[in-house]
């Protein structure tokens, strides 16, 4: 019988983290931003049926990067948790903080259990408040830690570069069109420093809109509405005095918007 | 639902053990619910009274609830059980929608409610029946539809109009004479309030419009734009205009003899 090799716990954890990070990096990035009336989720997603963003409860939305089957599992778990809690107590007793804690427990347990492979997912749980100050955004990396984020957050493959780009440019009180434009700009940056165009058909956009009269604030933005928002962005982008290095990306982002907008119009 | 029954079955209606029965249980009962369809949608309305035996248990109970964006349910029968059943029904529809990413069909919703009523059969046999009326806008067929139920969960689709609860006999008679297929939305709203007035006129367990306390029927309308509950202002206007006419003609509008 052979004696198993000794692997230090540090090494084992580092290997698992590396494995999970690589899995997440294969997926496309997505961003979550606060804007004046709520929180917007923007990502590149060629599929219209397999969503990266979804509704968990009245004011809570969910975004995930990584392996679809794993985050879908977590999403359904989250919906169950929220619905059971809301039914048992009251709709107000379902909070993003509680949900983020449950996710952190799940991810953390699986990450540190030697028998299972770690989840290759990175989650964002966001809750929109009745005022901008009440907005909460939690980022949950693969290892089960929780990061309380403000303003903007990016997860997925190229997330570090994207979030530093967003941190520099995001400000409080942006309109939805402005926030969307910034998000598309951020997502279209290549790791090498180049740019590429993301057509509107490949964008998945959803909002948690605090001004929605319904109890459920989550809404997907698709089709004409998305095209319209991307178009207002191109009209609004002309007078903005953005930093000089962002000037190029501004115009390219605007082109993407107006081009896709017009195809949408002619298509109808 | 399955998850709930695995995790905490005692939360589900029908899973509680009952104490040995000593005579009929006295619990508040909700009374009359009426619904009528019109081209482009359906209206669902209910009076505001809950009774316990010969007593009025509550004057301003709410018995019509949105089930989801395109459907609503009105409840007659044991109020406590019925409200809980609606809560669970709402939860199930929302849960399905979130997990599957699509709404249940109207038919599917109606069937689900049928199963829930049937699971309450044991309680119904002890006098704690729940008999709802379900109405919704069918997006696939572009029309409003009404489903009525019996205590065993038997489901039947109604054409035109329907009523449930103790005053339903009088409400149905009233609508039978006043209903037409080409009603506008405003006329349909007036029709259901007329029917509730007639039910309250002859059934002691159904409450009429209470002008002194400003308690008016709950009136809801579901169209392709979704569920909408009339504001107190709107429903009081309908009730007051009916009341005014009834001061001259207490039995309400007369249908043609032939």
Automatic annotation (TrEMBL), chain A:
Cellular compartments annotated: Cytoplasm
Gene Ontology MF term list: threonine-type endopeptidase activity
Location of the region described as Disordered in the Swiss-Prot/TrEMBL record: 230-268
Regulation: The formation of the proteasomal ATPase ARC-20S proteasome complex, likely via the docking of the C-termini of ARC into the intersubunit pockets in the alpha-rings, may trigger opening of the gate for substrate entry. Interconversion between the open-gate and close-gate conformations leads to a dynamic regulation of the 20S proteasome proteolysis activity.
CDD domains per UniProt: proteasome_protease_HslV (cd01906)
Alphabetic keyword roster: Cytoplasm, Hydrolase, Proteasome
Record Pfam families: Proteasome
GO biological process, one term: modification-dependent protein catabolic process
Main location: cytoplasm
Composition-biased stretches (Low complexity): 251-268
Pathway: Protein degradation; proteasomal Pup-dependent pathway
GO cellular component, one term: proteasome core complex, alpha-subunit complex
Family, similarity comment: Belongs to the peptidase T1A family.
NCBIfam families assigned to the protein according to its UniProt record, in alphabetical order: 20S_bact_alpha
Oligomer status and interactors: The 20S proteasome core is composed of 14 alpha and 14 beta subunits that assemble into four stacked heptameric rings, resulting in a barrel-shaped structure. The two inner rings, each composed of seven catalytic beta subunits, are sandwiched by two outer rings, each composed of seven alpha subunits. The catalytic chamber with the active sites is on the inside of the barrel. Has a gated structure, the ends of the cylinder being occluded by the N-termini of the alpha-subunits. Is capped by the proteasome-associated ATPase, ARC.
Role according to the record: Component of the proteasome core, a large protease complex with broad specificity involved in protein degradation.
Protein name: Proteasome subunit alpha
Gene: prcA
